[in-house]
Amino acid sequence: MTFRPNDHIIYNDAFKMIVEAINYSFFAETNGGYPAGYQTVAKDLELVARDFVNYTHKVNRYEAGVLIYNVLDIPIARKADNEDGFVLMDGVYDTTSPRMTLRMLHDKSQTQE
Predict the structure, then answer these.
(1) Three-state DSSP string of the chain
(2) What CA–CA distance (Å, rounded) separates 27 from 11?
(3) Which residue, 6, 37, 85, 92, is most buried by CB atoms nearer than 10 A?
(4) Given this model, what pLDDT does residue 28 score?
(5) Cα 1 from chain centroid?
(6) Separation CA 48–CA 33 (nearest Å)
(7) Banded pLDDT at 9 (limits 50, 70, 90)
C-alpha cells in the first residue's frame, strides 16, 4: 500500500475507512467484501441515502465532513467475548457493553485532559 496524502479518495474508499474505524468490517465482509459489502453497510448505517450509486465519485471536503458527521453517533462494534461474532455497543442488547460511539470516545478524551 502506498501513502499519498494529496490524492483524492472515492466513496468506496471512504466507506471502507469508516466501516473499519467502527469495527463493522465483519458485516461488510459477510456481505461481499470490498467494495459491495462496504457499500451495503454504508447504506444500512445511513451514511448515505439508500439510492446512492456514485461510488467512484471523488469525495470533496464537504462530503467527507457529512460522512464523518453521520458516523459519529453509530454504536461501535466489538468482538464478542465467547463467540466468533461481534457485539454492537449500543447499551441495549448487551448490558455488559455500555453505549459507545465515536462522539462519546471524543468527549471522554476531552474531559480527561
Answers:
(1) CCCCCCCCCEHHHHHHHHHHHCCCHHHHHHCCCCCHHHHHHHHHCCCCCCCCCCCCCECCHHHHHHHHHHHCCCCCEEECCCCCCEEECCCCCCCCCCCCCHHHHHHHHHHCC
(2) 18
(3) 37
(4) 94
(5) 21
(6) 18
(7) very high
Burial of 55 (0-12, 13-18, 19+ CB in 10 A): middle
Q: What pLDDT, on a 0 to 100 scale, did the predictor assign at position 4?
A: 83
pTM: 0.76
Which pairs with CB-CB distance under 8 Å and at least 24 residues apart come from 62-66? 64/14
In single-letter form, the type of residue at position 102 comes to: L
Digit-coded pLDDT (tens) for 38-90: 999 999 999 998 899 999 999 999 999 999 999 988 888 877 776 666 767 66
